[in-house]
Amino acid sequence: MPPELKQKLKQVLAGRSSVDMGQFQFLNLDKVREGAGGDWERLREKVYEVSSHFIEKRLDPGDVVIRCQGGYLIIFEARDPDASEVAVREIAEELEHFFLGDRELSLLEVLGEARSVPTEELLEIVARTQDEAPAPAKPRKPAEARPDGDPAPPWKRDKRVASDDKAITDWKDAPRPEARPGYAHRPEAVYKESNAVWDDIVFKPCWDSRRSALLHNICVARRVVKGFAYYGRDTLMGSDDRVLHRKLDESVARAAQRGFQKSWSRGWACAIIVPVHYDTVATLSQRMKYFNILQSVPEAMRRYFFLRVDGVPKGAPLGQMQEIFRSMKPFGAYVLAHLDFGAADLKRFEGCGVGIFGTEVPNRMNEDGPEDHQVLALNDWVASARLLKAETYLTQTATLDVLEAGLSVGVRYFSGPAILPETPLPEPVRPLDLSEIRDNWYRDHALEL
Known about the structure:
Elements: H1 3-13, E1 18-27, H2 29-36, H3 40-57, E2 64-68, E3 71-75, H4 81-100, E4 109-118, H5 119-129, E5 191-192, E6 200-208, E7 213-225, E8 228-231, H6 242-265, E9 271-277, H7 284-294, E10 305-310, H8 318-328, E11 334-339, E12 356-360, H9 363-368, H10 372-387, E13 391-395, H11 400-409, E14 413-415, E15 430-431, H12 434-444
Parallel strand pairs: 7-9, 9-10, 10-11, 11-12, 12-13, 13-14
Antiparallel strand pairs: 1-3, 1-4, 2-3, 5-6, 6-7, 6-14, 7-8, 7-15
Helix pairs in contact: 3-4
């Protein structure tokens, strides 16, 4: 152990009979090593380098991080057991999600635990788990191996109805979208539609404010009219043609799959949000037609796809909604609902299993800045989602003012020009700090300020 780390450990333990400790164990390292071959040492260091970044960034200056065999130990300077448990759980989730987006490391899982231990026991754990430098794997006794081939953690741990086609949707004429200013630069799309109302299909990177990372991409149609860009259902220019909406949904689902496949072939992956209109999945016959497209995704890969339902009618029967949302769960990791701005009463989604609720930032809110009543509406919406144990997201986040208003009330996910412009293919998972978003925004808008 380096002298400075020893000194820091001595300081945090001074005068304490017990401490709160966090423990992280990497699972499936053996499987990653088998697939890596001669590249194993580089990948091994990549695992620890990424992990150090995620862990240290989320700790207080007085906390101590110790690299150990197959993972990390954390000694918290001043946290209660509950706070330590929350911190460890969130770090483990973030690490696992990050590894999921890297094809070379996608098999890795992260086991995290927080507990209070006597100082003497902690010192024993530190002594027997030191792993300061990469070294060839030593042969282990059978008793030290886990059933799946991973090394045992250095600490002891206890293992903790179908519908018919009579379903009715409350279809309403869609309002014609407002004209929106386009991006200064629009990248050329990979997936173009020559015979469609929309021009092409692109991906909008989505930022997770809690994890300070780009984690998702929203797959959307794009159409440019007289210099203005329209996205998603706005490309239909207010049309209420059900056939057109269904065709859009099918094209987007196929483009989302192709985009994922291309990314996977290049050695990385990310979660992709796939929008579908409520009417497209409202009846059993239409639902089965759409599901035929989703079924082409191998079951093991479906964890990378999030299904988003647009246009949920206000008067939709609860039983019908529950059936629709539940029927979609086998095809993706999460089911989302995209609602009109200001729709704060989410009790009607009880029992539907919606994990994330989203809405689009109104054009006026981007142009004039968020007004008090809009911030209050966002606050009520976030609170309502939390009652259902769900998260929230904003699309078309165009300014820092809107982004910071959303952050202030607890919105977790954001997409739009203030984050990143659309991309031809999904963006890989990567860390992205709020400070970097601010710097990029100020740089791009320097002439306007």
